[in-house]
Amino acid sequence: MRSATYSDASTLSAATSSVVEVRPYQATESSSLQVPAAARHWLGLSVASLLIAGLLSLLVVLGRLPFSANWIADPLFFQRCLVVHVNLSLIVWFYAFAVSLAKLRQAQPSTTVHWVSITATIAGIGLMLAGALVPDAQPVLANYIPVIDQPLFLAGLVLIFAGVITGMFPLLCGRPQCNRAGMSNDVGVAIQAAGVAMVLAAVSWLAAYSGMPEGVSQWVFFEFTAWGAGHVLQVANVCLMLTVWLWIVHLVSTKPLFTTGQARILFAVLLAPHMLMPLLPWEGSLSNLYIHGSTQLMRWGIFPVVLFVMYRSFRHLRAHSKPNSDARQRALRVGLYASIALTLLGFILGAMIRGSTTLVPAHYHAALGGVTMALMVAAFLISESVWRGRGREPSNPQHWRSKGRQFALYGVGQVVFAMGFAIGGSYGLGRKTYAAESATRSLGELVGLSVMGIGGLMAAAGGLYFLYLIFQDFRLWKGTVSA
């Protein structure tokens, strides 16, 4: 990806003319400011991490095939690939994207802070990949943040979190200053809230680490040091998702959903209960207060705000909808509604959990699918702002139709995938049992597994389609192809 300075001489005039004059959804002059290089770099890094995660998932599949499983003698290699896949697809993809959104809100991002933070993150990814190649390194399939108990991997994970938090820090230290790409002030408040949640997760991890007794097993140490932090990271994920929802609502309706003051109150309500998380290990990181308290905070502290934003979004769009919407607005609505549907499904499935069945992965695949769906929409919006800021337009004016189809394919696939897990779980299918570990299966379990497979293929196809379309957009930045 070509780098650029943050203060291009052509920043305002070219961007304003290219954005405002050609589209019915024209934005204000302040929103047409050219996308900083920092935002482009972090977007590229987040998408690259998703691509690498996909390649690693392919290795995991190959490791289960008879003709290829014997190529690598180390039986733990493919499990280590799975661990790195999860960290890239659920940590780097999410939080590098958060930094990209944050850079859109800064008038002139610091060059020094940017290069220090993104270099640390890239180095962390490299160390994680190197740790996966070390023979006999032990993967620990802990919840929220699975790890490889190997110094290179652990150092890489620390560098990644340090890098993304450092990248977010300038936005947390001051008020958002710019409204690029149609971002209203409530969107800026939402991305700040995501940054606060990321910092709170790091503090929660340190508190749990200090409360961990000596002599515990490998799995217990990694599971419960990350237990509270992992729950807080779900709050950060929700803030990221709501950031995109507010952004889409503003672009489609041309009116912000909330005033700045209303948004601050809303996200303060979302964050406030979770400020208790660093205090929960007071009696130790294996205490009931910490383990069950973390779960209760997440169970009751997230959904009220999300449901309120859903309700206000539907009312707002109904009041300000336009009769002749273009392909862009229709695609944005598809992405928004798909993310909302997945989130609602995640809430419903989470309320149904009664034990360690596949209802658990059904819940989190739906919930995290809603976040990923939102970020896919945001990736196209940032990319669009880049090539418009450079005075370029795709030759096909209906290119957003392809993106709308991609949103629908991924959204429907993820819903079917989660429902397959849910069907199996309702018949008692174990969360971490596989075909070789179960001599018989009920009809309900077999139906669930079949539905899950169909949905998984659809969601994977939607993910590949996203990568194809976003790389087409990236090439358009330099004017080499037409979208």
Commentary on this structure:
With 483 residues, this protein is mainly α. The chain has 3 domains: 27-180; 184-321, no CATH class; 325-483. The protein contains 16 helices and 2 strands. Helix 4 packs parallel to helix 6 (151-172), helix 4 crosses helix 7 and helix 9 packs across helix 14. The model is unreliable at 1-32 and 433-440 (pLDDT under 50).
Notable features of this structure?
483 residues, mainly alpha, two-stranded antiparallel sheet
Brief characterization of the structure:
This protein has helices at residues 11-20, 37-62, 66-69, 77-104, 111-133, 151-172, 185-210, 218-225, 227-253, 260-271, 288-301, 303-319, 327-352, 359-389, 399-426, 443-477; strands at residues 138-140, 147-149. The protein has 483 residues and is mainly α.
Query: Helix/strand/pairing class, anyone?
Result: mainly alpha
Percent in helix = 55-70%
Mean pLDDT: 86
Uncertain ranges: 1-32, 433-440
SSE topology sketch:
Blueprint: H1 11-20, H2 37-62, H3 66-69, H4 77-104, H5 111-133, E1 138-140, E2 147-149, H6 151-172, H7 185-210, H8 218-225, H9 227-253, H10 260-271, H11 288-301, H12 303-319, H13 327-352, H14 359-389, H15 399-426, H16 443-477
Antiparallel strand pairs: 1-2
Helix pairs in contact: 2-4, 2-5, 4-5, 4-6, 4-7, 4-14, 5-6, 6-7, 7-9, 7-10, 9-11, 9-12, 9-13, 9-14, 13-14, 13-15, 14-15, 14-16, 15-16
